[in-house]
Amino acid sequence: MRKISILFVFFSVTLTGQNFKESTIKQHISFLASDKLKGRGTSSPEEILAANYIATEFKKLGLTAYNNSYLRPYNFKKNPDPHDTSLVGIKEKSSNNVVGFLDNKAPYTIVIGAHYDHLGLGHDHNSLDPNPEGKIHNGADDNASGTVGVMELARYFSSNNKKEPFNFLFMCFSGEELGLLGSKKWCDKPDIDLLTINYMVNMDMIGRLNDSTKKIIVYGVGTSPVFVPLIDSIQTALSIKKDSSGIGPSDQTSFYLKDIPVLHFFTGQHSDYHKPSDDAEKINYKGEAEVLNYIVTIIEKTYNYPKLTFSKTRTPDTGKSSFKVTMGVMPDYTYEGEGMRIDGVTDNKPAFKAGIEKGDVVKKLGEDKVLDVMSYMKALSKYNKGDSTTVEILRGKETKVVNLTF
């Protein structure tokens, strides 16, 4: 690792002003998450409509296109049902990342990205709806919110009349819901030299800021020694929860694995995640504008430093990479107490049938103590379909033990 001497100047910056209009954010999300786009399933005609919409915005902003097109195509093969190993002869499909470059004649480039695909009509076995087939999964928060974040940051940095010391590469990835396909493909065959990338900013689900807690999770703060002191120096009304890991279930992982510092912004899980109910009217548009303003402040603070040094971080220990069973619950990833608080329960799944409710905190699964989401996943990996066990939960101040069958 190349050593760079960095002088950290510790002073506080207070977020002021508002660079983003709620009405513009709403306009873009309302289109991307409309029924017309049928959930933006990877490689679908409707995903192409979304890609062209983004490309049109990039063109309006005067961003540079590679090979005269903002669409960067790639091919892939994907088993539509990963649980069915008997499927053979899988056909190759194609999709597109959408890429625009803001050339400030600088030696290094900041990548700002988000995925624009979602679950389409529920055919890819990623939905948490009990009967997803044929239902439009509009994906307003996941991830029209992040996609519009890229578009709005592209507008800001291309029109703010400031002398930026870095170039910007704005990227909207396809195929994230199928396994980070678009970002992986781009990182394997990039349009620019990866060594010229300063760092990558990823936005995935930034549209549901809670007005009471104002909590936002920032992942990847351990991927460069600059990030933690920089973030800590910013005074903001937002409640910032920092996580060091560069690896997670979104597109920043593809860049981290190429030894590029990353930051990933996320306003938290909710009960509409991967369901047809993730609709535009549930987005907190004012909250998203606050989040984007905060991201701008972080980016502009990095102008005080040279190219950031990359640091490897811990890899989250999730036990097995796949699970034979599910409880049918959505963890609250922002919960900071001991145990795993439940943010949503899917109808007719094991937890629902056992009487487990939203807001319950899982303390034990069978004989395994649950300290957090990761220890819950480790415990879950031990079970097979048809197994029965007990679940100890904390509901308010009362501890309850329920019987559950997978």
Spell out the blueprint of helices and strands:
Elements lengths: L12 E2 L7 H11 L12 H16 L10 E6 L16 E10 L6 E7 L24 H20 L7 E7 L7 H8 L8 E7 L11 E5 L7 H6 L1 E2 L3 E5 L8 H5 L5 E5 L18 H17 L27 E3 L8 E6 L4 H5 L6 E5 L2 E2 L3 H8 L7 E8 L2 E8 L1
Parallel strand pairs: 1-8, 4-5, 4-6, 6-10, 7-9
Antiparallel strand pairs: 2-3, 3-5, 7-10, 11-12, 12-13, 13-14, 13-15, 15-16
Helix pairs in contact: 1-3, 1-7
- Outline the low-pLDDT stretches: 1-17, 82-87
Radius of gyration: 21 Å
For the biggest sheet, the summary is:
8 strands, mixed
What proportion of the residues is helical, as a percent range?
A: 10-25%
Strand runs, count: 16
The rounded distance between the terminal residues' Cα atoms is 47 Å
> What is the CATH superfamily of the largest domain?
Zn peptidases
Percentage of residues in strands:
15-25%
* General form: globular
Strand order, largest beta sheet: 2-3-5-4-6-10-7-9
Question: At the third CATH level, what is the topology name of the largest domain?
Answer: Aminopeptidase
Please report the first level of CATH classification, the CATH class of the largest domain. Alpha Beta
CATH architecture of the largest domain: 3-Layer(aba) Sandwich
Judged by helices, strands and strand pairing, the structural class is alpha/beta
